[in-house]
């Protein structure tokens, strides 16, 4: 059986959890704090980041977009990528955008840890990316039920997990009022069992990071 190294707030790990669930692939969930010295993450990923999907041969597969592609190629049914080439590229574009928003939230989280030495310029830059990224998500998803085409795909995984992460780590941004259609879309996604079973929440980090 697969094992997945995951963290409770991680949007990247949640992408993989949702893909595994939607594909009906059983896995053992290993919840860790990637920043703490006790984590198994560096044993499997020299970049020391989770998620890591560990195979039965004890091989670590890492980087959420790569894991999703790996799963799609090895376990094509049910597909999480659309069939049409332009639709595939649109779903991947959404993933790039949403991962970028999450990256900006992570950078904000750690900059805020610096307390009195934190940089307002750096925080403003990340905030622009987050706000601009969500504005673009709202534009790209529009009023559709699914982000791409008429079925659930990687596009929905990307947008839904990024928006879920904002609720945990960047709650001061009220994107729900700014983009009520995006909010309604996110609420529909949250009803899916794969989303409901992986609702993110904060973790206690014990080691010093920055
Ligand atoms: N681009 C990576 C990002 C993964 C990532 O940043 N994971 C965080 C947890 S949410 C982590 O493990 N960070 C530890 C570190 O950067 O050293 C992916 O999509 O998998």
Commentary on this structure:
There is one protein chain. The protein is of the alpha+beta class and 210 residues long. It folds into 2 domains: 2-74, 3-Layer(aba) Sandwich (Glutaredoxin); 85-192, Glutathione S-transferase Yfyf (Class Pi), Chain A, domain 2, CATH 1.20.1050. Helix content is 54%, strand content 8%. The protein contains 9 helices and 4 strands, in the order E-H-E-H-E-E-H-H-H-H-H-H-H. The chain has helices at residues 11-23, 41-44, 64-74, 85-113, 120-141, 154-169, 175-178, 180-190, 193-196; strands spanning 2-6, 27-31, 52-54, 60-62. The chain has a 4-stranded mixed sheet with strand order 2-1-3-4, covered by helices on one side. Helix 1 (11-23) links the parallel strand 1 (2-6) and strand 2. Helix 1 (11-23) packs parallel to helix 3, helix 1 (11-23) runs antiparallel to helix 6 and helix 4 runs parallel beside helix 6. It is globular. The N and C termini lie far apart (36 Å). The structure holds glutathione.
Question: Can you summarize the main beta sheet?
Answer: 4 strands, mixed
* N-to-C SSE string, H for helix and E for strand: EHEHEEHHHHHHH
Fold-level CATH name of the largest domain: Glutathione S-transferase Yfyf (Class Pi), Chain A, domain 2
Structural shape: globular
CA-to-CA gap between the ends?
36 Å
Question: Which CATH first-tier class of the largest domain would you pick?
Answer: Mainly Alpha
- Low-pLDDT sequence parts: none
> What is the spatial order of strands in the main beta sheet?
2-1-3-4
What integer is the average pLDDT?
Answer: 97
CATH arch. level architecture of the largest domain? Up-down Bundle
Count of DSSP strands: 4
Return Rg in Å.
Answer: 17 Å
Report the bound ligands by name, code or SMILES: glutathione
- Return the domain count: 2
Give the strand content: 5-15%
Structural class: alpha+beta
What is the percent of helical residues? 40-55%
What's the total helix number?
A: 9
